[in-house]
Amino acid sequence: MKEIKKVFAFAKEYHYKLYTAVLLAVLSVFIGIIPFYLVYRIIMRYMGDLPLNFNYLLLISGLIFLSLLAKSFFFLKAMANSHEVAFDTLMGMRKKLADKLLRLPMGEIKKRGSGKLKNIFVDMIEEMELILAHMIPEGVSYIIVPLSIVVYLFFLDWRMAFLSLGNIPVSMFIFHLMMNSNKEKLESWFKAGAEMNANIVEYIGGMEVIKIFNQTTTSFKKYTESVRDYEKFTLDWYRESWTYMAGFFTILPCTMLFVIPFGALFYLQGSLSLSVYILSMLLSMSLGEPLSKLARFIESITMLTKKSQAINQILDSQELVKSEVEQIPRNSNISFKQVSFAYDEEEVLSDISFTAKENTVTALVGESGSGKSTIAKLLVRFWDVNTGKIKIGNIDIKNIPFAKLMDSISYVSQDIFLFDTSIMENIRMGRPEAVDEEVIKVARIAQCHDFIMELDKGYDTLAGDAGNKISGGQKQRISIARALLKDAPIIILDEATAFTDPENEDKIQEALNDLIKGKTLIVIAHRLSTITAANNIIVMGNGQIAAQGTHQELLDKSEIYQKMWQAHTDAMDWNINVKGGSLNA
Ligand SMILES: Nc1ncnc2c1ncn2[C@@H]1O[C@H](COP(=O)(O)OP(=O)(O)OP(=O)(O)O)[C@@H](O)[C@H]1O
């Protein structure tokens, strides 16, 4: 219930509309009782030997028709209101979740995986619509109306009131048995659903790798197994519940189960008038529909509790530390002071200290897995350090407003992601307010313009459609164009030449020359020949700084660097000429 309450909290802004919806729904259900009362009037007229002329019956029929019409009208009005509230609230929830992701460490996001997140963002939230749009207005009316009928029945004859409720404890007992008997199965069913979603997304996302490495059998097996598991657990749950459910849904609306026999007994004994007996039967009959609809909601609540748990788990996750005192750095000097960090248990960076002065180039080199990318990711706060401090302009990055920090850094990462929107918009992400001309200007500098113009719709080509026609190197130039447009004072280039081929390489170098002018640059490179002119080269080994200095200093004093240099002398690709703030081939 606590979980569901949290969902209601999202609808706070729309409480007024929600109350109106409840009121209209209650009205609609009450109006729905009128036909029962009118039928009672006809029966009483028959029995009272009053004349039953055609006009009277016509009037009653007309009133029944009008009340059914009014019932539908108020119900539809209630639904219109509640759906408006529901979809506004769902939008709010999705926005809140998306905002939350921005404030979460990347680890938290990756731990969940895109499949599970998609499941939460789309499917689970969609199912919240049921609570807000239907459960509240309808559910409340299905409680209030039967209660009012029962109260009225108490006034008529308290025995009939109790009798009309007699079936409820019986059905609730069956429901209780059902919930207790298959708790674990329900849990497995939910898990299997989440697993299946994750596998579907992974299967589609990894299609390229699956095809290339001919992993179709294994991956397809994983996918089909999860679909089969989902089917199995769903059926397991239903099989276990079927008998109980049938019992529950049959007995709950049988409100006349005790009213008819015992009412007849009281009537024959003379302690109950015929009119009260008949009215009690008709009123208890009108209880059936709201009660069985309410029962459907009870079933849904169990499901929704699980789903809102998953949503709330994300919303309650620990965010990146937000400082009370926010400060703006005055320069772009970067310093790492005794920084240590572990993604999980194992420390991947220990005691890292270095400074990267404004307008200089710092290169990170070292064997694969030595922690170079982690240093970059800590600087952009994908994760927070465990111990030590990272400062920009002598201010701890935790104290720099997140948006400001992001504005200060352009991160050209290993994973270049293009959104499935136009190429123009993909580049514009660097600075959303940039006009088309500015986007085209940076695209020219980043050597993208020509190949973009060759695409079917030029800058308007969707990245998804263009996907197969854009090479890795071209993608990289698009990401450089983005970074150029952003024009941030600090640039991190992670494996910036990972996709290079001879044709692309010169172009990327030219693009980079423009990007790094007058900036503080941190470059992660495998090919040492590209960073020989860096102001400071940090040699990483096993998560620690093995040595640091200029190329020459390291050649003189660092054995590990000497070995690396020897291994790389063949791979002459691009050089950094720091004096000119440019990269030269
Ligand atoms: N998201 C993650 N979760 C857990 N461990 C991670 C994660 N990312 C990296 N690691 C681990 O942290 C260590 C450092 O990785 P990192 O990517 O920083 O190395 P790197 O020097 O940049 O490697 P490469 O040159 O291959 O990119 C490695 O042992 C890696 O397995």
UniProtKB/TrEMBL annotation:
<keyword id="KW-0472">Membrane</keyword>
<dbReference type="GO" id="GO:0005886">
    <property type="term" value="C:plasma membrane"/>
</dbReference>
<dbReference type="Pfam" id="PF00664">
    <property type="entry name" value="ABC_membrane"/>
</dbReference>
<feature type="domain" description="ABC transmembrane type-1">
    <location>
        <begin position="21"/>
        <end position="303"/>
    </location>
</feature>
<dbReference type="InterPro" id="IPR017871">
    <property type="entry name" value="ABC_transporter-like_CS"/>
</dbReference>
<feature type="domain" description="ABC transporter">
    <location>
        <begin position="334"/>
        <end position="567"/>
    </location>
</feature>
<keyword id="KW-1133">Transmembrane helix</keyword>
<dbReference type="InterPro" id="IPR003439">
    <property type="entry name" value="ABC_transporter-like_ATP-bd"/>
</dbReference>
<dbReference type="GO" id="GO:0016887">
    <property type="term" value="F:ATP hydrolysis activity"/>
</dbReference>
<feature type="transmembrane region" description="Helical">
    <location>
        <begin position="130"/>
        <end position="155"/>
    </location>
</feature>
<protein>
    <submittedName>
        <fullName>ATP-binding cassette domain-containing protein</fullName>
    </submittedName>
</protein>
<feature type="transmembrane region" description="Helical">
    <location>
        <begin position="161"/>
        <end position="179"/>
    </location>
</feature>
<dbReference type="InterPro" id="IPR036640">
    <property type="entry name" value="ABC1_TM_sf"/>
</dbReference>
<feature type="transmembrane region" description="Helical">
    <location>
        <begin position="55"/>
        <end position="76"/>
    </location>
</feature>
<dbReference type="GO" id="GO:0005524">
    <property type="term" value="F:ATP binding"/>
</dbReference>
<dbReference type="InterPro" id="IPR039421">
    <property type="entry name" value="Type_1_exporter"/>
</dbReference>
<dbReference type="InterPro" id="IPR027417">
    <property type="entry name" value="P-loop_NTPase"/>
</dbReference>
<keyword id="KW-0813">Transport</keyword>
<keyword id="KW-0067">ATP-binding</keyword>
<feature type="transmembrane region" description="Helical">
    <location>
        <begin position="21"/>
        <end position="43"/>
    </location>
</feature>
<dbReference type="Pfam" id="PF00005">
    <property type="entry name" value="ABC_tran"/>
</dbReference>
<dbReference type="GO" id="GO:0015421">
    <property type="term" value="F:ABC-type oligopeptide transporter activity"/>
</dbReference>
<dbReference type="InterPro" id="IPR003593">
    <property type="entry name" value="AAA+_ATPase"/>
</dbReference>
<dbReference type="InterPro" id="IPR011527">
    <property type="entry name" value="ABC1_TM_dom"/>
</dbReference>
<keyword id="KW-0547">Nucleotide-binding</keyword>
<keyword id="KW-0812">Transmembrane</keyword>
<feature type="transmembrane region" description="Helical">
    <location>
        <begin position="242"/>
        <end position="260"/>
    </location>
</feature>
